[in-house]
Design a protein that fits this description.
The structure is a homodimer.
Chain A (H helix, E strand, L loop, with lengths): L1 H39 L3 H32 L3 H34 L10 H22 L2 H31 L4 H33 L16 E4 L4 E4 L7
Antiparallel strand pairs in A: 1-2
Helix pairs in contact in A: 1-2, 1-3, 1-4, 2-3, 3-6, 4-5, 4-6, 5-6
Chain lengths: 249, 249
Amino acid sequence: MPTDHIMKTYDDELKRLNNAIIRMGGLAESQVAASIQATVKRDSELAHEVVEQDAQVDALEAEVEALAMRLLALRQPMARDLREIVSSLKIASDLERICDYAANVAKRSIALNQAPVAKPVYAIPRMGKLAQALIKDVLDAYVQGDADKAMHVWLSDEELDELYTSLFRELLTYMMEDPRSITAGTHLLFMAKNIERIGDHATNIAETIYYLIHGTPLKEARPKRDRSSTSVVLPGPVAVATTDSEETK
Amino acid sequence: MPTDHIMKTYDDELKRLNNAIIRMGGLAESQVAASIQATVKRDSELAHEVVEQDAQVDALEAEVEALAMRLLALRQPMARDLREIVSSLKIASDLERICDYAANVAKRSIALNQAPVAKPVYAIPRMGKLAQALIKDVLDAYVQGDADKAMHVWLSDEELDELYTSLFRELLTYMMEDPRSITAGTHLLFMAKNIERIGDHATNIAETIYYLIHGTPLKEARPKRDRSSTSVVLPGPVAVATTDSEETK
């Protein structure tokens, strides 16, 4: 029957869209892992590979967009299907940003390799591991259509924010103690910020999954423990002041 | 006639969506301007206002999303109308990020006000002015449906990238000369990065406008002159090394 055929094609197309998202997610996981690995092992070759792989991510995002537009134009989807398609656009955009941040971490690791090992680099794999777990869990939530799991990711990002804020202060103190470490310290600051932002994008995806499943946007404001924007670290005997205001979401 | 009535409502709804984007754009312009003003005048009160206004931007983005989903579900738009609606989702997301960056600049200006004036702050209004011009021009391109104007914005962002890279190096040297300036220098680094990112989002919007008008995505890679990720600044007699690789888009 032609109707059946049409339905089957429609389902196939939705599945293709889903698969493209899952492939992008897998790539995001491996790009983040490789960028951290490159930093820890001081492996500039691996770092270059991460930077080069980024084009593949952009191509996948373009594929998602083309598929989604096709489905919207030809299938005139409603309700859950419509949310599925619009959500795929949002998730693809977040995954693309995650990969951009991974590529930037990789790029900065190459700059770091031109200087002696900077002690605070030890914190990067800790942050990286947390970020990777957030991406993995949010992708599981997407595949399983599990809004509770997505909410768990949404709440877990707080830990990454806290790690970032404490590393931010440590790096400031580190640079003050030895001005020769300022270039390395600055790259580490931005690398840490990139990883913190990867966590933010994982929580964006969690919010999208919540909306996809429940059909209403998540209203609550997410708890934010990154206070680095208002941190003041003074030189000399360590003095740290932080105002109470929270990072803007 | 009922058909006319339906058409009229549809047009009204598209117009409402358009207006919401234009309002968001206006808010983005004024938030960026106010955050720069707060930094230059060391006006913490104004900075707090910028941070508080951010909730309004989030509300406007939610309004755009709700309107767009409604149009997609009820009107089953095709071709240009469909692109118009999907583009509004993308543009709203970029405008929301621009406002986040403005709020973060404002927040960091409050931290800066706790220390003496940091000399390199002079570069912030220069970067801010450029970023504001990019937002203004890309919004004009949107309102006028002018793809050439959008492409002009897309190319102009290069200047902002160059300003950012040179400020990045200046700030590193500044912090090396006086470790007491490291906290202020770090906040300025992130403020400059935020403004550079605002430019990137203006170019994203330019790309969306190109797609909205031409119906095909822009294929070229944008020239990128931000080389800060690979910059190495050594202490002592100023030595600057920059590899040739370009910032990841």
